Amino acid sequence: MQAECVGGTMPNNLEPGDRQPERSLTTLGADLVPLPSQQVQEFIRASKAENTLRGYQSDWRNYCMWCELHSVQPLPATPETVASYIAECAYRLKVGSIQRRLNAIAEGHKAMALESPTHHAIVRNTMKGIRRTLGTAPVQKAPALTEDIRTMVDATDAGLIGVRDRALILLGFAGAFRRSELVGLNLEDCAFGKDGLTITLRRSKVDQEGVGRKIGIPYGSNPETCPVRNVQAWIESAGITSSSLFRSINRHGQIQQRRLAGLDVARILKKLAERAGLDAAKYAGHSLRAGHATSAAIAGASERSIMNQTGHRSVQMVRRYIREGSLFRENSGGKLGL
Predict the structure, then answer these.
(1) Contact by Cβ (8 Å): 13, 77
(2) Structure confidence at residue 25 (pLDDT)
(3) Which of 273, 197, 201, 263 is nearest to 230 (CA)?
(4) Are the beta carbons of 26 and 44 closer than 8 angstroms?
(5) Confidence band (pLDDT; 50, 70, 90) for 310?
(6) Residue pair 233/163 in contact by the 8 Å Cβ criterion
(7) Fewer CB within 10 Å, N side or C side of the chain?
């Protein structure tokens, strides 16, 4: 009997006439078991990041729709079904997106205590062929380097929106923050001192358990681009006394209680890049973080100091930024006397 997929949940594979046992369905990606309390359900849902769960749910729904269209059973799936699905995905998706859909299928089977077909040789070899055909080099946005940041600051609006946008991009750049980290900051996370601003980052992509870490933001030599002074100016101008640090502003110039979203960081950066005469399509929210690492590498900062600021756990990732920053600074082609 073909399993039914409704609303992104994964039902049992029942035979006709069987009565489905009563059990609580948890969000895709957590274990599917009888749950004794609502509290337990909430903690199980919290075992994975919300963005990960939303991605899995979206990918699972797409997979179910494909299975229905091709009259095949999505759960449990045969290796041939999964291989055919990802082969068709290769015509319209990037390698990373296809891999995420495989992860969603694997999690779906895991949640129902079923063996995942994603580990079968036919699926692995199909995925290997997709990688060789499409390539695995990620298409990355351009890093916003120091000079780019200066021109963007010069392009900000007059008034409260400009004060906020300057504080946002300068703090994001100096702290090498992910966009989710930046918009997640509260006033209580900021401590101003004689050496600069100390940010307490309570949760991040690589710290879902909320261990937290502190990040130092030194005073800048130029008051106009000093991240500490600009954050202070924003807090004072906006009259923020608690809660969300970066907030939306309506068309009448009034501060709203709603904090900015991650997409707003990318929108603001693109807006300022376009005004500054840069190619806005090349920039996104990650450009601030990538720009910090690359600019620091160009200036000769050590791997350790860059990793301390960015929070990277992998030295290989940081070394990629260092290589990009050193393409011309330490280029043997410049020593050839041409």
Answers:
(1) no
(2) 33
(3) 197
(4) yes
(5) confident
(6) yes
(7) C
pTM (predicted TM-score): 0.63
176, 293 in Cβ contact below 8 A? yes
Show the tokens assigned to 189.
């996370």
At residue 320, the pLDDT reads 73
pLDDT above 80 for 210: no
Buried b (16+ CB within 10 A) or exposed e, 265-285: bbebbbbbbeebebeeeebbb
Q: Which DSSP string corresponds to 203-227?
A: -BTTBTT---EEEEEEPPSSTTT-H
216, 193 contact by CB (below 8 A)? no
The token pair at 156 is 């900000």
What span, in angstroms and rounded, lies between the C-alpha atoms of 110 and 117?
10
Q: Which residues are catalytic?
A: 178, 205, 286, 289, 312, 321
**Contact status, residue 192 vs residue 211, Cβ threshold 8 Å:** no
